[in-house]
């Protein structure tokens, strides 16, 4: 398995007095280095050239996490690769995160239900999606925004809404949401 570490090298000091932080890739006892966009000053380093500026430490950790995620996609294939191939794979990898607009998706599902004669279910979906849009205040919501705390806040918001047309307020929508998300 490839390992990654952010490092600074004394012999890489630039004329302006800065050092570029490199990410060292180690795989099968071989090493390769990837330059980062970060250049740090002497005051950002210890005497042993270890980073001490927390901002750069955190930014390099983000890069390393991204590299590990990319390598995780390789699975067992990584054991058959050399460090050069891993370097090429990492530096050429495209970020392909799955994302979907949950509002559009929900409206498409409701439309499909309506077209197949399931009007009651379609109507329920439309009400839920409209309610979600009202809660968030916009028509586009990424599926990545939907978390447990998001759902809890939405349920709380629903509970705080006044009953329509001076009717007695029930708790059906909250229990329906709870059952959908928590089974």
Structure write-up:
- There is one protein chain.
- With 183 residues, the protein is α+β, with helices and mostly antiparallel strands.
- The protein folds into two domains: 3-92, no CATH class; 102-182, no CATH class.
- It contains six helices and three strands; from the N terminus they run E-E-E-H-H-H-H-H-H.
- The chain has helices spanning 54-72, 83-92, 102-115, 119-136, 148-160, 172-182; strands at 3-7, 19-27, 30-40.
- A three-stranded antiparallel beta sheet has the order 1-2-3, covered by helices on one side.
- The longest helix is centred in the middle third of the chain and has 19 residues, at 54-72.
- The chain is elongated, with a radius of gyration of 26 Å.
- 11% of the residues are buried.
- The mean pLDDT is 86.
Describe this protein with a few key phrases.
single chain; 183 residues; alpha+beta; 6 helices; 3 strands
